[in-house]
Design goal:
- The protein is mainly α and about 140 residues long.
- It is about 25% helix and about 0% strand.
- The chain has one helix and no strands.
- The radius of gyration is 40 Å and the shape is elongated.
- It starts with a helix and ends in a 99-residue tail after the last helix.
Length: about 140
């Protein structure tokens, strides 16, 4: 049976389609590889957090914040702080008087003190090595 130009064209097109299908498969494999790489961050791999891209979203915990309370110390909570020493127990006491009122700029020289706020600074002494010399005769 004689092959006509139409049959030859059909075979050429089928060969072209087969070639293009192979290219499409190859490109889909590359695309899948790049999509996996783009999705990698420090949360789902062993990469350092500094290697995360700035545009990548941080993964948030899926568990709800159970307590429903606001952040920070709650009302009624006894705070933790260093209590002030008695004034007599301090090594030095410095009285700091302002020259003028912070609100109206009126001079305060000669005026009695209206209030006192205490602040204590604790400093550790300088650590120096102890050097002993032994002179053997």
């Amino acid at each position: 049976m004689a092959e006509g130009p139409r049959d030859q064209r059909i075979r050429e097109l089928e060969a072209e389609i087969s070639k293009q299908a192979g290219v499409i498969e190859e490109l889909q494999a590359k695309l899948a590889k790049f999509e996996r790489l783009v999705g990698i961050n420090s949360q789902n791999s062993s990469m350092a957090p500094s290697s995360d891209k700035p545009w990548q979203k941080k993964l948030r915990s899926l568990k709800p914040s159970g307590s429903g309370r606001k952040r920070g110390g709650q009302k009624g909570h006894k705070g933790h702080k260093r209590e002030l020493l008695e004034t007599e127990a301090c090594d030095a006491v410095h009285s700091v008087m302002p020259e003028s009122c912070g609100h109206c700029a009126t001079s305060l020289t000669g005026q009695p003190s209206a209030g006192l706020r205490r602040q204590q600074v604790t400093e550790l002494p300088e650590i120096r090595p102890r050097v002993d010399e032994y002179q053997l005769h």
